Amino acid sequence: MENLNIVLFQPEIPQNTGNIGRTCVLTNSKLHLIKPLGFSLDEKQLKRAGLDYWPELNLEIHESFEEFREKYKDGNFYFCTTKGAKNHSDAKFQKGDFLIFGRESSGLPQEVRDVNPEGCIRVPMVNTTTRSLNLSNTVSIIAYEALRQIGYPEMK
Fold it and tell me: Which amino acids are annotated as binding site, given as ranges?
């Protein structure tokens, strides 16, 4: 079983997805991509960002958010958004949780966040004109907090 499930809702930037894929390989996490994607999965930039780790990636692609939700309806979902009411470090993570992240340009849409408003979490940031942290950085921050809480299984 994977430590975590990292879910990217309609990702737009191949380099971010490649970096996140590398993080997934090195943390025994599964990467889920929800279409439409803003790039082709065989783009050079995507594979370059993932380097030689990309062939080892546990990857699943979903045609829509609805298809994904139906397949994993019994999963424990956290919606990672700047609009979350609680900090990521206040969540109580478990092995196999699904961490869902939105598009680089617009985040998670309201209808996705409305699936479980109590499950909306955020990384605290100072209030500036900058929208938010880079997606791949945010994934790493939240994933490693979740891994810390579950005891870094299979990691040394």
Answer: 102, 123, 132
**pLDDT in the model for residue 127:** 81
Give CA–CA dist 144/138, Å, rounded. Answer: 10
pTM for this predicted structure: 0.93
- Rounded distance between C-alpha atoms, residue 120 and residue 81, angstroms: 6
Residue numbers belonging to the annotated binding site for S-adenosyl-L-methionine: 102, 123, 132
CB atoms within 10 A of CB 62: 18
Task: Look up residue 81 and give its amino acid.
Answer: T
Cis before 36 (ω within 30): yes
DSSP code at position 24: H
Return the domain boundaries, the chain: 4-149
Fold of 4-149: Alpha/beta knot (3.40.1280)
**pLDDT score of 40:** 83
Nearest residue to 71 via CA among 25, 7, 121: 7
